[in-house]
Structures are given as structure tokens and as C-alpha cells.
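User: Show me a protein chain along with its predicted structure.
Assistant: Here is one chain, sequence first, then C-alpha cells.
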Amino acid sequence: MGSNDWRTSALLEEVQELRQKIRNSNASESITRANDDLASFLIAIEPRLKEFGITRIADLTGLDIVGIPVYAAIRPNSRSLSVCQGKGLLHEVAKVSAIMEALEQAMAERAEDLIAVQATKPQMRQYGWECFDPEDSSDASNVSPMGEAERSWVPSISFTSGRTVLLPYEVVGLDFREPNPWDASTYRMNTIGLGAGRSLVQAVTHAALEVLERDATAFTDMLGIHPRFARVLSYHRGQSAELDAAVQKVQRAGLDYVFIQHNADFDLPVIGTFVRDSGNVHNSRVYAGFACRPCAHDAALAALLEAVQSRAAQIAGSREDLSDQDFGGGGAWPQTDRMPAATLHALDLHHGSCRTSALNKLRSAINAILSVGADDIFIAPLGGPGEVRTVRVVAPGLGAASRDGPTYLSARTLGKLMNFS
């Protein structure tokens, strides 16, 4: 058994400070735009990309007719995905988005840097180190007690207690190589809850919102969009300049689109956007994107951008996680005529102003996770170059599904399945 200096880690102290700010209702930050000073950030970060295996940034925008910027960051020696994509209304935003996606995976792959202790669970108790039981993990595919098995542990901060809690590397990290030393029989590694940002607030917010999105969409990932658990959203111009610009590009490209709200068990909007070519709708591919945001218009924009990114990914053909079925055709178009209806504007009237600080957005995400019965929220700092921060957020008790079957179904999702007819 060995350990590094995790108990005095500056990264853990930074997470602890952020936890205090989230819990302090008087703590606030100024409202900033996501694309502020992107040029300076790119100048600083691009010389360091090769340190993290990123050898090329590709502009995929021109492969499609939509005109919304889509970029790819290429990491040939990746231990997970070698192609990560990013999107945005501006080329700089899309480029940074791709870089952040690649960095969060690159940092999660570095087991040699993340693992603090290798020990059995009895040894953890003997030395007074608190650990998280993998049977409670949202990433556990089978219920299998640890017993006396030695595991590799990564430190995190418990949001509820503020204590340092060690998590199995399989819950935090990414390593899809074969063979590898990780316990694939108990855990299914995935990217749910990974986040990167130019501040710790941005990184944790991104990760927490993804955890919420995957919980809300776990049911539909398995059975598709069902009118009982979703409603169609109408969109009207003039409420969001960025969404107006994105929708206009999609329409000019001759594409149909529809916004769907998932009936989540928490009070934040989770929106899916579906896009297809107009005309021969029976043979048209369907591309989808999903997003959870405190603001409905922001969620709709993020989901629409993801759907456009999905088109570019299939046109480029460079994503190794896409199956033959993905390249052969898209999914089903939602049956909107059977769904109840609402408007994006009405959702934002319910949820409040879209213009709020990054810290308040993070508070909303944390409160939403806790409101649906998460046992705790663990924030594991992964490091990052310069001003970049990458994290893994783990929320036991929330659901998630994956492409090759359910990873974890929460009690709420199971209840929906049992009552489904």
C-alpha cells in the first residue's frame, strides 16, 4: 500500500473553497460571457496541447451545409476516445469546446497521477481513510461487494460533509485499453460527470449538469421518447439572440427541427432537439442532442448545437465510438402530435432569468441533484493545464444509461419502467 500527498493537495483545497462558496448564499460572482477573451486563452493553451496528447485541431464546419462551427481535437494515443468534438456559434467557441472535451478525458486517463492510495477496504478503515462503497456507485453495472480486493483510490470532496472521500479509480477515471488492471466486472467506465472549464466553477457546473441530463434521459435512452414522459416545446423568435441565430442557420440549410422537454424529477429544464433533412421524411436521418441548463433557451441552444455536431460527426466518420447503425441511419422522429405542448418562453418564466452568475448556475445544479435523493455529491479534481480545471462529479443514486445497455437505473427510473404501459 502506498500514498502520495493527496491529503494536502492544493486541488482538494480549491474544491473545498468552492464548496463553501456554493453553500454560502451571500457569496456571488459577476456575470460573464462564456466567450470572453477566447483569443487570449487559445494563444495560451495551444502550445501546451501536445502535453496532453492533442496533436491536431480539425475544423469540420465545412463538411456540412448548416454553417454552425464544429471542431475536433485529435489524440491518437488516447486511452479512451481519440476524437473529441466541440461546437459553438463562433469558431473560437467551437475550438475551445473541442479542446476542453479532449482535456477532461486526457486528465481522467492519467491513473498514475490521480491514484492516491492502493489498498483494500479493511486497510482503508485501519488507516482512518474514508472511502466510497462501489455498490452505491452510479457507475456500477453489477452489485458485487469489494471483499478483500485491493483497489486504486482517487481523492474527492464530499459536498454534504466536506470531508475527503476516496473513490475507486474505475468511478473517476477512463481507460478503455485491453488489457488493463481495472475491475470491468463491477464498473463500466464512462464520461458521465466529467467536466472541464476555464475555472473550477465552470468545470463543476458542466459536470453536474451532465449528471442531471443523463438521469433525466435514462428512461428515454432505453425506450425512446414517449408522450407520457415528454412534451413538445414551441419556439418563438426574440427571446434569445443566440438561439435565433442557430435556428436560422438550421432552417436555411433545409432542416426540420423540434424541441422536446423531458419530464425530469428535478426543477431544471432538460431539453432534447431533433434535426432531420426536410422532404423525404421517411428515409431522412434523425440527429439528436440533449442538454440540461438552468435556462430553457440555453438548454435548447446547447441541445441544438449537439444535434448539429452529431451530423458533422457522422459526415466526418472519424469518431470510433459510432457504430455501423449510426452511420447507416438515424433514430425515430418524436411523435409530437401525441405530446402535450408548452413554450420555451413559459419555461423560462417559471425558472427565472437566464442571465445569472456562474456560481448561481452551479448552485441550481447542485440543489437539483440533492433534490432527487442523491446520497451525496463527490467532486474529484483531476488537474489541468494553466487556468483549465477538470473534474469528475459522482452523484450516487442518480440514474444513467449507456449505448450498450443501462449502466445504472435509479429507483425513480425503475418506477417509471414498472408503471410503463
